[in-house]
């Protein structure tokens, strides 16, 4: 028995070290890799990733520097927390870092990495970007849906007033903000409201859609260990990949149903699906059904939760800073009066409110870690060698607290500074403007 235990232990140690030195790429050929904490065989640094992960990365950056590396299983990851290094990523290395790492969600739910969010750099990505800029996110296109946004805000205000008709009442705003953003997006996309007591579709259809979205955010909200340790997909029959495949099938059937429904109705519709189907007739190779489904999916996953979370943080910060709330109310009263609702064109007359939005985005970014990038070639970031096929993560939460930019970065004060918005290619800084968020 002792001999069996000895040889079993010896075999396990051999396997671990084999994985460490053969499966994980080594340092040969790279003279100056980013610093890294000690790692474990097979796991790498996965054991260090305690939530909230962006705060963990920030603590590690204070010890190892603004550019450091970790191992997520067999995947090398570089975390960037320096404004100068981020600028280097998206100017000097913008094309090299234009790709996304593959994941089970982007493979199965994201139509084999062909959506706007997951497509590798190339002709297909350029086509999707062109569609996004000219047909979906243009100022003119968004302006055509301004009435939808106004109506949904009125729905929210009416619901709040009904809750408080007997005096002050406690309300749970998180769910209301989620309903607001989802209804805005889906009314723009398909002309349907799926959330709230007065949905415009069959209750079973609304329930199905809400469950799909809930599952999509659950499985796609954070990187799953199965993406970095494929062996986990071989263990058990109810693995992560199996669940993601099931979600992908349900999602595709639902989105295809929306497209087919609008196709049957004809050309008189005013929704985004109707517009894309009209373009499909003249340019079928650029607007096939899979591309349209991918565009809808990206709008839902990227434009709903982020907007709802930002609204939630903004209200939380205002309630915890009553002097700021008082100044904001005074500005609204002075510029618009007490009888008028705020409309989108009014924002240009409300600089203090714009500063509140900017400070909310700085202190409480809805995506503390930006969507991961993947290096297609060897490159240099912050003076360090970054090998090909390295995942690069930008810690936006840490960037917004850089003491070299803000004297007291943790203070929730209104400096009126412009927010830095990071994009994957062709630009590094954009001032906050109207229309960046669909919600």
UniProtKB/TrEMBL annotation:
GO cellular component terms listed in the entry, alphabetical order: membrane
Family in the record: Belongs to the cytochrome P450 family.
Compartments where found: Membrane
Protein name: Cytochrome P450 81E8
Broad class of where this protein is predominantly found: membrane
One GO MF term: iron ion binding
Transmembrane segments: 6-23
Membrane topology qualifier: Single-pass membrane protein
InterPro entries: Cyt_P450, Cyt_P450_E_grp-I, Cyt_P450_sf, Plant_Cytochrome_P450_Monoox
Pfam families linked to this entry: p450
Annotated keywords: Heme, Iron, Membrane, Metal-binding, Monooxygenase, Oxidoreductase, Transmembrane, Transmembrane helix
Matches recorded under PANTHER family: CYTOCHROME P450 82C3-RELATED (PTHR47947), CYTOCHROME P450, FAMILY 81, SUBFAMILY D, POLYPEPTIDE 5 (PTHR47947:SF62)
Signal peptide (UniProt feature, chain positions): none
